[in-house]
Structure formats: C-alpha cells, structure tokens
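Bumping with the actual sequence this time:
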Amino acid sequence: MVDAAAAALAGVEVDYPGRGRALGPIDFSLAAGEIVALIGPSGCGKSTALRLLAGLEAPTRGQVRRAAGRGETAVVFQSPTLAPWLTATANVSLPLELAGVAGGEARARAAEALRRVGLAGAERARPAQLSGGMAMRASLARALVTSPKVLLLDEPFAALDEITRRQLADDVLALWAVERPAIVFVTHNVEEAVYMAGRVVVMTAGPGRIAGELAVEAPSPRPPGFRTTEGFRHTAERLSEMLRQGMEARA
C-alpha cells in the first residue's frame, strides 16, 4: 500500500455466501485531500467498496487501509439516517457525545456545523420537519462535525431533485475547500461525477473491478458555468464511453 494514502484497498476481494464474488480483485488508493468519484453499473460493488473503507465490512481477501481513529472517517448514506426523535442539533452532536465530548461543547460544535451547511435557525427542528434537502444537509453536518480526514458519500443526492442536487454539490465542494478531507463519492450520474471529483474511477459490471480512471482538469470548487464549458462536456463524454465499456466488461 501507498504510505501517503488517506485510505486504500490492496488486492481486495469480497465474496458473499450463496452469491459468489461481489467485488474485486481491486487496488484503490485515496490521497489526502483528494476527491474521487466511483461510478459503475448497479451491482458492481461501489457501495461495498465504500463500506470497506468505512470499516463497516471486512474483505474476504486483501487489505484495507483506512483512517481508523474515532471520527477520522465519516459516512453519508443515500438516506439521511437521522434519529427521528432527536432535534437537528442533537443528531449532529451525537458523534461527539459518543466520543466523550462534553454536552455543552458538543452542542456548540453541532450548531456551528449546522450553520456551515446552511441550517442556521433549524437547530431545534426534528427530521420530520425538514425537507429532503435539509435532512441531507443535517446528515452532512453530522459527518463533518468531527472534522474527519476521510469523508465517504454513498449516492447522497440520489433521492433529491436536480436543483437541490446541484446546490448540495456546490455546498460539499465549498465545505471541502475549508478543511480538505479526502472524499470518495459514489454516484451513478456521469455529470455529477465530473462536477464533484478530481479523479473518476470507473468500475466494471459485477463482480466489480476497476475498468479505468479519468482525471478532471478543473479548479475546485468549480467556477460558475462549469457545466456549460467544452472541457466539462468533453470529459463527461469520455467518461460515458468508459462507463459503457465497463458495463460490458466481465470478470
């Protein structure tokens, strides 16, 4: 494995009883401060790879390197997974309290995290009182409140409308610019991958392997109008072709 990596998979394979090989073998390395998108067909193992990096699952074979300290790796899932009986502040402060941070400090840090994601004024709201986009912002605040070294995003915008998706994409990049955690972003959306990431990794049809990768040559956060530029369109078309080839590939 690469010593400088924030997280890595080396020769990793995942087998499930009765289903056979689900992932691999794959080698993947995430540099500190890097944003990488994982894209591939349904069932190719993108979410499995993310779960390995999160420490939520162990590989059948191979090695996983990850930021294993408490709060050093944070995950945002497709569903906000907020506790419905807790306020936004209580949901966001929960990781800090579990880490032993005193209640007053945890709540103050949670309030600041909510402010950073645009939820100032919603501190006392419960999840049922939040829109889908607001709930995802709260989930993002909960992930960021521990200042993680690695942030794992598993299709967090998939259930949202296009306008909200774009707003949240810009918000994530703006938040990244402050503390620069390494980010792995799983998506099915080619244009979203190009917009979010500095590097896009394309996976084959399951069992997933890495079909190839593409660097996105653009500043981050993205400049206004980036989606309309020739560079964006050209990169998206190249990535679409790589994805098509990856969907046809078999282990």
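The tokens above came from a reply further down the thread. Residues 77 and 154 are 5 Å apart (CA to CA).
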